[in-house]
Design a protein that fits this description.
single chain; about 200 residues; mainly alpha; 6 helices; about 0% strand
């Protein structure tokens, strides 16, 4: 199985297209990660709220502990402080929830920005490459099979007329030479069919 053509011009085009495809995929991944990182920065306020809420809840808990030691009115002082500490914990939970939401959004956007462009590039690039690999394998097998040269010659005859330019035309023309079984003409035509696919005879 051959992945690249044998003729320099076709092989150069294939390598160039492969490099462009890889570069586009790399750019898509890099861009998606950059966007995901930018979205993640939006979680910073949530981190601050969580940190502040946790700090406030700790301080109010300590104040509640201290207030509970005050004689006679300790219970009265402790209850509002504990309620305020719970509110601080609620702020911290809200900050944590905001960070989690931002993280999920960043993950979804990053995945979408990677998957969609990569699939698009693969759909444009991979089928033609796999088709060429399959076709070149078929042509190579055909070239070595009995009667394969005749079929390759017929392929060259039914292809673009310009592919035969520059070859000396046999008496009666190419089609007549092929019908007569002219081995020289058949060899030339099969070579044209192989070269058109980027293969050497």
């Amino acid at each position: 199985m051959r992945f690249y053509a044998q003729t320099p011009a076709r092989r150069s085009r294939q390598v160039l297209v492969d490099l462009v495809a890889v570069a586009l995929i790399a750019a898509a991944v890099w861009g998606a990660l950059a966007v995901g990182g930018a979205i993640t920065l939006l979680a910073e306020p949530g981190r601050k709220v969580e940190s502040s809420g946790d700090g406030l809840a700790r301080e109010l808990d300590r104040a509640g502990d201290a207030a509970s030691d005050v004689p006679l009115v300790g219970d009265l002082l402790e209850k509002p402080l504990r309620s305020a500490a719970d509110a601080g914990s609620g702020f911290a939970d809200a900050g944590a929830s905001f960070q989690e939401t931002v993280g999920q959004v960043a993950d979804v956007v990053t995945a979408a920005l990677i998957v969609v462009p990569v699939l698009f590039v693969l759909l444009l690039w991979l089928p033609p490459r796999l088709l060429w690999v399959r076709r070149s394998s078929t042509l190579r097998r055909l070239a070595g099979a009995p009667g394969g040269a005749d079929l390759l010659a017929l392929r060259a005859l039914t292809g673009p007329p310009g592919a035969l330019d520059g070859l000396p035309v046999p008496p009666g023309g190419w089609a007549d030479a092929w019908r007569r079984g002219d081995q020289r003409a058949i060899t030339d035509l099969s070579a044209v069919a192989l070269e058109r696919a980027g293969l050497r005879p």
